[in-house]
Design goal:
The chain is mainly α. The protein is built from 11 helices and no strands. The radius of gyration is 20 Å and the shape is globular.
Length: about 260
């Protein structure tokens, strides 16, 4: 994408995103100071602080900005959940942005609306963004988003739901390894290859969320390395080709230890 083409797409997207932000926050659309501060905050957030403007922007950062502002432009439709408190909605709005950013960085493609609809649907939401309850649905959605975003504070807060989600995601990554190497992988494989395996319990069900997140990161790095070696795009892997379309199973997943 050329810079001129990027600007022709990006500028209208920023305008729509700012309009959505104004509807949510109540800030007047003509408040140029607030808009400039918001705009620069979003650019930094989208690129982990690597850039502060679009001058000399790289193709990778173009994609990150387009992904983030596409989501923000839909904020009027997704940033507020009927039935949740203002505080819950504020936390949700921030975490959903962080999670969407990380999903795109991992190469999982798809429309934002489809992605968030699948996550909300797993928690029992209707198409009208109406929460079935205030506690259980919030914990389920936020636990899912916390894992996707890698937000350790949120993971710790929603630990029970997160541990189930992390175990499920680890299983998906092990399936990706099965696909790449044509051999079977389980929790015993993790115990055998991780240099810090002494910190891990023999059973995945006994591992806390913080350790499961480290395992997930390790597996993701290993999978990316194999994809590069085999010239396979991560989005072509079984767990990432159609992300979040299937609901997470409720029962706890059991892996067999290498020592059992």
């Amino acid at each position: 994408m050329t810079f001129r083409h990027f600007q022709s797409v990006f500028r209208p997207l920023v305008d729509r995103a700012w309009s959505a932000q104004c509807r949510i926050s109540g800030v007047p659309p003509n408040n140029s100071t607030a808009r400039d501060r918001w705009y620069r905050e979003q650019i930094r957030a989208a690129t982990d602080g690597r850039i502060h403007s679009t001058r000399g922007i790289s193709p990778d950062n173009m994609r990150l900005l387009l992904n983030r502002f596409t989501m923000l432009s839909q904020g009027g439709d997704t940033a507020h959940i009927s039935g949740w408190s203002d505080g819950q909605n504020a936390w949700f709005a921030q975490l959903v942005m962080d999670a969407w950013q990380m999903v795109n960085r991992r190469g999982e493609r798809g429309a934002f609306a489809t992605w968030i609809d699948a996550i909300l649907g797993d928690a029992g939401f209707t198409a009208q963004r109406v929460a079935p309850d205030r506690k259980t649905s919030f914990d389920a959605v936020m636990g899912h988003l916390a894992v996707l975003a890698g937000d350790m504070r949120a993971i710790a807060h929603f630990s029970e739901a997160d541990e189930r989600r992390l175990r499920w995601q680890i299983e998906q990554f092990l399936r990706d390894l099965d696909y790449l190497t044509k051999t079977s992988h389980n929790w015993g494989y993790v115990l055998g290859i991780w240099s810090q395996a002494r910190q891990l319990p023999d059973r995945i069900e006994e591992a806390p969320a913080e350790l499961l997140w480290k395992v997930l990161q390790m597996l993701d790095t290993h999978i990316r390395r194999l994809c590069k070696d085999y010239i396979i795009r991560p989005c072509e892997l079984p767990s990432r080709a159609h992300p979040h379309q299937a609901p997470v199973p409720k029962p706890t997943i059991t892996f067999t230890s290498a020592t059992s």
